[in-house]
Amino acid sequence: SFLSSSSFSASSSSFSSSSFPSSFSVSSHGNKHGSYSHPALTAVFCANNGNHIIEAVRASEELQDILGTEWLSRLGQRVEEHLDAYITAAWGKALAAMGSGGPEPSSLTDKQRQVIKDKFSAVNAAVDEAQRHHPTWSVPDADLRARLLGRLTREVIPAYRVLHDRYALSGFTRKNPHKYIVHTPQGLEA
């Protein structure tokens, strides 16, 4: 499943202490984050770097004294913003499709059936993207990885459960239901 802890790799050689940016600014890390082609990957990169900086500062009393708790708090908020940006970039279209209401499942017109098909197609595309690319992305810190997976579990699964429960048995697709109802809520959680 795309929500398992294996969805994001735990190991990464690119986050050694030598990669600690001397300016303590996530956004000035040589603008490396701008070179990623996928906005969701950019968000993961920035969250990883911000979290790495926080951990390095927490490990040094001298840096804590220099930078202060307010600075750490602001950087922590930025890390959370990057996690939100990941959800938006990776799952925004699917969440919008799942949350945009929909016709009553009792008597569907052909146009309404297509709207429901489009909703399931958006979810399937997001899940396929996650299964294809996200396992190669590294989130080495276990706590950060758990927070990211927790966000997915809180935001994606309930929205999909509502969509699935409302339309899975509605007959919106007569010929090929397996083409659209590819996943169950339980399957996405597993």
How does this model look, in words?
The chain starts with 38 loop residues before the first helix and ends with a helix. The protein contains six helices and no strands. With 190 residues, the chain is mainly alpha-helical. Helix 2 (61-99) packs parallel to helix 4 (142-167). The chain is elongated. The longest helix has 39 residues, at 61-99.
Give the structure's gist in a few sentences.
The protein is mostly helical and 190 residues long.
Number of E-type strands: 0
Output the number of helix runs.
Answer: 6
Beta-strand level of the residues, as a percent range? under 5%
Silhouette: elongated
In terms of quaternary structure, the protein is single chain
- Structural class computed from helices and strand pairing: mainly alpha
Order of helices and strands: HHHHHH
Query: Could you tell me the mean pLDDT?
Result: 82
Q: End-to-end span in angstroms?
A: 6 Å
Rg from alpha-carbon coordinates: 20 Å
Report the biggest beta sheet as strand number plus sense, adding barrel if it closes.
none
How helical, in percent, are the residues?
55-70%
Contiguous uncertain segments of 5+ residues: 1-6, 11-31
